[in-house]
Amino acid sequence: MKIQDFDNWLRDLIYPREVEDFIETIYDGGQGDPNGFEYKKKVAFYTDRYKYYIVAIEKEKNNGYLGCQVESRKPRAGEDWHRGNDLADGGFNSQTLEQIKNSILAYELEQLSVRKPQETPEE
Asked: Which pTM does this prediction carry?
């Protein structure tokens, strides 16, 4: 997987709208070092309650990295900080990307306040 694949995924996520209207690019650039070339892209997007950061690092000499973090958009009562969590991360591949999408969806789901009783089968 390459940074271009990550960009395509962002386009697919927003389609038919424009990525730039929904996803903020925090960093987008490459650099060389003794361990080879590395290209990094960090993006952010928002929901009503949370801000999500996704980092994609393409490395010349290994699998690279994909990771996601979430931060609340407003502090809880009595707190002056924004709570956050690490979500899925791993190698720069489609499996990690799918885990990130699933972890974002799971984070956005609201827990049921009341569960329906299980029905007993009729005899």
From this structure: 0.84
Residues 23 and 115 sit within 8 Å (Cβ to Cβ): no
Pairing of strands 36-46, 50-59: antiparallel
Over 70: is that where the pLDDT of 87 sits?
yes
CA distance 20 to 55: 17
Q: Looking at the domain assignment, is residue 30 inside a domain?
A: yes
Structural domains in the chain (count): 1
> 44-53 pLDDT, tens per residue?
999 999 999 9
- Expressed as residue numbers, the domain containing 70 is 3-108
Residue 73, CA distances (Å) to 48, 53, 70, 76, 80 in order: 8, 12, 9, 10, 12
Q: Is residue 117 part of a domain?
A: no
Q: Does any domain span residue 113?
A: no
44 in any annotated domain:
yes
Mean pLDDT, the chain, as a whole number? Answer: 90
